[in-house]
Predict the structure of Amino acid ABC transporter ATP-binding protein.
Amino acid sequence: MSDTAPLIKIEGLHKSYGGVVQVLQGLDIEMTAGDRVVIIGPSGGGKSTLLRVLMGLEQIDRGSITFGGNPYISAKSGKTAIDAKVRRSIGMVFQHYTLFPHLDVIGNLILAPTKVRGEKKADARERAMALLTRFGLAQKANAYPAQLSGGQKQRVAIARALMLDPKLMLFDEVTSALDPELVAEVEQVILQLAHQQMPMVIVTHDMWFARNIASRVIFCAGGVVVEDGPPEQVLGSPKEERTREFIERVFHIKH
């Protein structure tokens, strides 16, 4: 990975469903290894689709993505090429946890390192316990997902993603399914990662969280970037009328 290249460079990204519903329409975004990018925008604006594309979970129609200056995802002749090695250096946490219900917490954490990397179980368990302790979940190591609160499940999901030592973390509305009193415990874990300089892309509707964690806020609508800048500018005094209308409608903040 080049020290001077952007961590992520997205150029001319197009994504449709069935060739009819255009979700991303020529998206261009760059981020550095020091960025914590928060993406906001209306439903259907392509935010979650962008994260799924970055994770290699969606095919694209046109465009390209590089990671650390190296080719990662591209579309040629209607086919999407994805570098699996690069994909393994990206971690993603979804809105609905996606934990394996038949595995206990420790089993969820050690599955990928032992299966994907061939790591010894004892070594993986040691690292998993260190993460669970750090996130205040050591006592839940042998619990099953059904025995956890929503906030605990989401913290386990974050710990599981970190087990593969990602160079970039993606968070897709990770607090939107939680009761209000559980939101803070998950946001504190992500803030902790931010303080440790973990690059991340976050989709959220939580204004407080966006202000406190973002180095940049990107407003997406209609499948394109409408506005991109520091949080105090985009959230505090947006330049674009579409951004201003969205923030006033969703966050009830008048400019």
User: Anything to note?
Assistant: The mean pLDDT is 91. Residues 101-166 form one domain. The radius of gyration is 18 Å.
